[in-house]
């Protein structure tokens, strides 16, 4: 049996709390910005890997095969390269990702580097959603963005 599966990986970390975001409404700004050295952030990522293992085994044995992979949140690109690789390794250990028709990762301009873009490509992401809601600084401030339009382009 080959049942289609969409995998959504939720990363609840971000540099700012946008007023329009419905995903992280219950999370304080200080928790959104947890650094990679934070015990709470590492506990979340460990729990995510545990959940991937638990459900991956059950879904695969029930005939589900991923066709779409989507990492969102928050801002998935806020993770370090090592954290991104760890989560992708957990996914690959449980799922055959060879039949993906789409692999997307959410990002924001201030969390992207050439190295991360290369890593995303190497991991199979072919679509990047970049949180660039406006090129008007006053609108960006009004919706809760920390960066200005000029920063988004650099």
Keywords:
154 residues; alpha/beta; 4-stranded parallel sheet; 19% strand; 4 strands
Describe the protein in words.
The chain has 154 residues and is of the alpha/beta class. The protein has one domain (3-153). It contains 6 helices and 4 strands; from the N terminus they run βααβαβαβαα. It has helices spanning 29-32, 39-61, 81-94, 114-123, 137-143, 149-153; strands spanning 3-11, 64-73, 102-107, 127-130. Strands 1-2-3-4 form a 4-stranded parallel beta sheet, with helices on one face. Helix 2 (39-61) runs parallel beside helix 3 (81-94). It is globular, with a radius of gyration of 16 Å. It starts with a strand and ends with a helix.
């Amino acid at each position: 049996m080959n049942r289609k599966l969409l995998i959504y990986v939720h990363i609840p970390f971000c540099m700012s709390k946008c007023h329009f975001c419905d995903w992280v409404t219950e999370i304080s700004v200080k928790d959104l910005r947890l650094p990679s050295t934070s015990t709470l952030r590492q506990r979340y990522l460990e729990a995510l890997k545990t959940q991937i293992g638990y459900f991956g085994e059950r879904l695969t044995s029930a005939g589900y095969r991923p066709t779409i992979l989507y990492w969102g949140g928050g801002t998935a690109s806020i993770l370090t390269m090592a954290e991104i690789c760890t989560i992708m390794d957990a996914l690959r250990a449980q799922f055959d990702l060879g039949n993906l028709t789409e692999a997307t990762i959410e990002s924001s301009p201030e969390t992207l580097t050439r190295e991360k873009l290369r890593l995303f490509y190497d991991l199979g992401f072919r679509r990047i959603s970049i949180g660039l809601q406006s090129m008007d600084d006053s609108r960006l401030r009004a919706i809760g963005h920390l960066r200005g339009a000029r920063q988004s382009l650099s």
